[in-house]
Automatic annotation (TrEMBL):
It holds the Pfam family HEPN_DZIP3. It comes from Mytilus galloprovincialis (Mediterranean mussel). Residues 278-404 form the DZIP3-like HEPN domain. This is DZIP3-like HEPN domain-containing protein. InterPro entries: 6-blade_b-propeller_TolB-like, HEPN_DZIP3.
């Protein structure tokens, strides 16, 4: 005993059983005898807590051991029949490696009752039986990601988490949260399986007794599920290349087909091309013939459709013109057509399949943007953005990867043609074809032809310091070209680095001449680039296709009406009239490109419409008609509607605030009283604010709203998804369904009658008094309320019409989505003028008019 009767606890405790503790001590120092019991109680509480944690861990282990494998087995059976799986295994046709224990289980197929969680996962994943989770395998899904792949990943994560934890880490809070999340997953799995078996199994296991010690021992022997697939870098590059290829091979051609299909039929395209068939290759001519027979674009590829869109002027040209690289801010339909063509060519001209992660993500970000804009162009009747997202993450087996990789490579069939270290020269079918054509010209044409130059692009497949290298080369253009003969460097552009050069045709006459010319030129280029690793450099050569605008067809299928303004004096005598008509006929023949030669042209002169100015009319009108002339003059001074005395003034600009991750797609708007209501399609809601932009509120909707019309001060009608236009008049709703049907409904949604549509591609409608005004991409139609066409307004400049409305005078206003303009047409459809343009600050994001 010490002086103060203090004792030191030497050995804290040793567990005999759940409630038994042995404490050994010796009297040395520190603790008085009165504290022995306190120390004993503390240790006993700690042991009790440890026992509870072990029980919680054991129960979670029971879920991992008995529940999760059964759930995974059910999912596997849902995705593939056990007997079908057995056949694939026997044929050694499953692209994954199995452990010895897994092989023994696979040998027992079609019985898979003992399959482990990991074995089920392997089969589901590598047999491509389900979509990859949004977060990709091996990561943690976001709470909003609830597809079956996401929940399988949650099961794998939960399994590995329980196996890796110690009992003292299993708090009551952790235990309860684990159980809650497990039940949420199982409910979604049951929904996927269309039965309640997972939840029932969970309840059975939860209510069963367990041997805690035995379960903990089993848990200690369990291995974590290996979720991450071990692949080499080359395999990953090939997979990324294949996924990008799938967009180029499958999705982009379909986008092009939708674009041309929405403008003209395949038969009409063929008729327009008849006089220019020699400008197409033999393969393209065969495709055009097939398209004419089937009246379908299904066999046309990107190259041919691009040529047709451009040569036939089927869509408005890109912002920077055809053949040029669009800027980031360029968002016209043709800008995306140009982007797709360039992506197709850039990828088809690659001489390797190495696509890194950053490049891959950048491609798909840009592909998704194009898909989104195309969905909007086609009024969300397409799903291109969603499809492109699936291409990025969907399962792809080795066969599928090889298929798309080869398909993209075969577009140009780029091959190594010759090598002069460190440079390797590649080119494909298009360059070979150009060489053959040029060499045949050299054989047949005169020596003057040899002085002609052709433009060639040399793609410098180099990924480092691209912008710096381009700047250096362009700044040294004159130095590079100095003393060069027959080849001239024009400019370097991106993608990776593209050298534009002009080569004399004579230097393409033989392979030896071509090779020596290229080697001399490129060595001069490399001497001036210090940022390039010159151990191995790949160069791909492609021809620059020159587009010449076709002449207008020379055959005319109907009468042509020509209107002229003549000075009245020229009709004073027959001789003067005949002289003017001769001038007109000569001008027509000169500018008809031979269309008027060897043909008889018949012209009919229609009655004259006099436009008389005041001063001149007084000199021509006789005294007895003076009074009538004065009356006519007085009426002429009165403003008339076709002068369209309409102007607009910007009163206020509203900036609708949004969060950083939001994209606003406002398709329509109305003003009711002092309130503005906007349809926000992408975020599935209405945006409501005061006319000064304050007090912004939202009304969530089940689907994306398209159009909106006011019913009264407290009620609006909104069209969702399939309704492309909506209008309200005299207690009836006029609704466009599927862009081709106009239903008249009461306010309960009951269809009263159907109005025949004047076009099968209605973009928008409005009802004005007793008139129905509707538009397609190029025309305005004015009809009676029974569908009878009263007038149609169409001009070449009217393209991409999006929305329509009217004013109290009956004037018709239309928005042009891609040209950023608003135009107004008189109520009789005879006169029009441009009201707002891009210079007024109008942007295509403004789709609708109040």
């Amino acid at each position: 005993m010490t002086k103060n009767n203090e004792y030191l606890l030497d050995v804290p405790c040793r567990l005999l059983s759940t409630n038994q503790v042995v404490v050994s001590y010796k009297a040395t120092s520190l603790y008085p005898e009165s504290q022995w019991q306190k120390v004993y109680n503390l240790n006993k509480a700690a042991l009790t807590m440890s026992a509870e944690s072990k029980e919680r861990l054991a129960r979670l282990g029971n879920i991992v051991k008995k529940l999760f494998p059964k759930v995974m087995q059910k999912i596997l059976k849902e995705c593939i029949s056990p007997r079908g799986l057995q056949v694939k295994y026997q044929l050694n046709n499953i692209p994954t490696d199995f452990t010895d224990s897994e092989i023994s289980l696979m040998e027992k197929l079609p019985n898979l009752n003992n399959f482990t969680t990991e074995l089920c996962f392997k089969l589901l994943r590598f047999e491509n039986l389900l979509h990859e989770p949004s977060c990709k395998w091996g990561n943690v899904p976001h709470d909003t990601e609830i597809e079956i792949g996401d929940d399988i990943q949650r099961i794998l994560n939960a399994t590995n988490d329980v196996i890796s934890r110690k009992s003292d880490e299993i708090s009551q809070l952790y235990y309860e949260e684990f159980q809650k999340r497990t039940q949420e997953v199982l409910k979604r799995v049951d929904n996927y399986l269309c039965q309640d078996i997972s939840i029932q199994l969970y309840q059975t296991i939860q209510n069963s007794d367990i041997d805690i010690t035995d379960m903990l021992q089993q848990l200690a022997l369990m291995q974590q599920v290996n979720v991450i697939q071990t692949v080499d870098e080359d395999s990953e590059n090939i997979e990324r290349y294949s996924r990008v290829s799938r967009v180029i091979i499958d999705t982009f051609p379909n986008i092009f087909r939708d674009i041309i299909r929405s403008n003209i039929s395949a038969k009409n395209v063929y008729q327009m091309c008849l006089s220019h068939l020699n400008s197409f290759s033999s393969d393209q001519q065969a495709v055009l013939n097939g398209a004419n027979s089937s009246n379908s674009y299904d066999s046309m590829d990107i190259t041919l459709i691009y040529k047709l869109l451009r040569q036939l002027s089927l869509i408005s040209p890109p912002t920077n013109g055809w053949g040029n690289r669009p800027e980031i801010a360029d968002m016209k339909l043709a800008d995306d057509v140009e982007r797709i063509r360039r992506y197709r060519n850039n990828l088809a001209h690659r001489c390797n399949t190495n696509i890194g992660t950053d490049e891959f993500d950048d491609y798909f970000d840009k592909f998704r943007d194009i898909g989104c804009r195309m969905d909007l162009n086609f009024f969300n009747k397409t799903n291109y953005e969603r499809l492109i997202k699936l291409h990025k993450t969907c399962s792809m087996d080795k066969h599928m990867q090889t298929k798309y990789m080869n398909a993209l490579k075969h577009l140009e069939n780029i091959k190594l043609q010759f090598e002069n270290k460190p440079i390797k020269f590649f080119w494909g079918e298009s360059f070979n074809q150009s060489l053959m054509n040029l060499r045949s010209i050299l054989k047949e044409e005169s020596s003057e032809e040899e002085k002609r130059k052709v433009r060639v692009q040399i793609i410098f497949q180099h990924e480092e310091e691209v912008e710096t290298t381009i700047d250096i080369l362009n700044s040294l253009r004159d130095e590079i070209n100095k003393d060069l003969s027959g080849i001239e460097f024009i400019v370097a552009t991106k993608g990776s680095i593209v050298l534009h050069v002009e080569i004399l045709i004579i230097l393409l006459e033989t392979d030896q001449l071509l090779q020596s010319t290229l080697i001399l030129f490129l060595r001069r280029i490399l001497e001036r680039i210090t940022t390039v690793n010159t151990e191995s450099i790949d160069m791909v050569l492609i021809p620059v296709q020159e587009f010449t605008q076709w002449n207008a067809p020379t055959t005319i299928g109907g009468p042509v009406y020509l209107e002229f303004d003549f000075e009245a004096e020229l009709f004073k005598t027959n001789d003067k009239m005949e002289e003017q008509f001769r001038h007109i006929s000569d001008a027509i023949i000169i500018h008809s490109n031979g269309g008027g030669k060897n043909n008889n042209i018949t012209a009919t002169v229609l009655p004259i419409c006099l436009e008389i100015e005041e001063a001149y009319s007084q000199s021509l009108i006789s005294e007895e008609n003076t009074r009538k002339a004065e009356e006519s003059f007085t009426q002429a001074q009165t403003p008339v509607k076709y002068n369209l005395p309409i102007f607009v003034t910007l009163r206020k600009q509203l900036n609708i605030t949004k969060s950083s991750n939001e994209k606003l797609y406002i398709f329509s708007c109305i003003k009711t009283g002092n309130t503005l209501v906007f349809t926000d399609y992408m975020n599935k809601r209405l945006i409501i604010c005061n006319s000064d932009g304050t007090d912004i509120d939202h009304i969530p909707l089940s689907y994306g709203p398209w159009d909106i019309k006011e019913i009264d001060s407290n009620t609006v009608a909104v069209s969702l998804v399939t309704a492309q236009g909506i209008s309200y008049n005299d207690n009836n709703l006029y609704v466009v369904i599927g862009m081709s049907i106009i239903h008249v409904m009461d306010l309960t949604g009951k269809v009263i009658r159907t109005i025949p549509a004047p076009t099968n591609l209605i973009n928008d409608i409005t009802v004005d008094r007793d008139r129905l005004i509707c538009i397609d991409y190029k025309s305005i139609y004015c009809c009676s309320l029974d569908g009878k066409l009263m007038w149609r307004f169409k001009m070449d400049e009217f393209q991409d019409l999006t929305c329509v409305t009217t004013d109290d005078e009956g004037n018709v206003y239309v928005t042009h989505h891609n040209t950023h303009t608003v135009k107004v047409v008189s109520d009789d459809g005879k006169h029009h003028k441009e009201l707002l343009t891009e210079s007024d600050g109008l942007d295509k994001a403004v789709w609708n008019l109040l």
